[in-house]
Amino acid sequence: MLMRTIVDPECDIAVATMAQLLLQQGKVTDALKYFEQAAELSRTEGEVVNALSYAEATRTQLEVSFGYDMLNDPDLANTTAITGAREVSTACE
User: Fold this and answer.
1) Per-residue confidence of the chain (93 residues) as pLDDT tens digits?
2) What is the pTM of this model?
3) Which residues make Cβ contacts (< 8 Å) with residue 41, sequence separation at least 6?
4) Cβ atoms < 10 Å from Cβ of 30
């Protein structure tokens, strides 16, 4: 993507703006990475709180979206349940 090559990775305003743009485009996973980077680059407490709030809201959006996908795709739900059961049984050994 051309826009990503233009963004200065050390400019907090550019990174936060890119996160917002990606979120508006529905590129939630990419937006989350930029929100987390924006939090690391923040210079004030307010900026940190703002970036982390957006990151957490974006993370929640991903989790809800994944849960919705599982409801509409029985194969995905079954695969996830089997994987989760394996992880639990392995952890108990």
Assistant:
1) 445 556 888 999 999 999 999 999 999 999 999 999 999 999 999 999 999 999 999 999 888 887 766 556 666 555 544 444 334 334 444
2) 0.66
3) 10, 11, 12, 15
4) 18
Phi-psi region of 26 (alpha: psi -120 to 50; beta: other; left: phi over 0): left
Task: State the CATH number of the domain containing residue 10.
Answer: 1.20.58
Structural domains counted in the chain: 1
Residue numbers of the domain that contains 85: 2-92
Burial class (CB in 10 A: 0-12, 13-18, 19+), 16: buried
